[in-house]
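RESIDUES AND SHAPES:
===
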Amino acid sequence: MREGGITSRIADPYAEALMSLAKDQNLTDQFGEDASGLLNLLQESEDLRQFLASPVVNTDAKKTALHQILGDQVHPLIKNFLDLLVDHRRIIFLEDICRKYLVLLRELKQAVLAEVTSVVELTDKQKQAIRERVKQVTGAHEVDLETRLDPSLLGGVLIQVGSQVYDLSLRGQLRRLSLQLNTFA
């Protein structure tokens, strides 16, 4: 894993340049969708991450592979951006650049990211209720949800928005009850 400070110093300017281009072309949302898609692709394929990070794979092979994998799924300017990252040997930072771009996009749209952990997959109605509640609490105009499953919660949800955590899980309720009982013992 790379050190956060060094990664930020390299990834942030690229993400900011991508945002500047997106604003100029009125493509901020399109680039956001492409960045999310690239993140999902990288998270699902360890082989692709290793291939792109490998110093022994030449730049043409990396570009060709990216173009074949992505096809017409991303905007042509994103393809050009990926080629630039390969040429400058910065493709290893693609995941960090995409994450930073999404942070910049949320700031632009006055949105927040809510990371929601639950025992079972949430329904669309539950997701919408969480979005509305997070909007009320944070004053954000939009809420992006990132969901994950954790059977150890026993029930309920755990919601994290920035550094704030809302523990609405059964495990959390039991822990709080246990702490209250211990104060009486």
Remarks:
- The first strand starts at residue 111 and ends at 118.
- Residues 32 and 79 are 14 Å apart (CA to CA).
- Residues 110-184 form one domain.
- The helical segments are 4-25, 28-44, 46-53, 59-70, 76-87, 94-108, 124-138, 170-184.
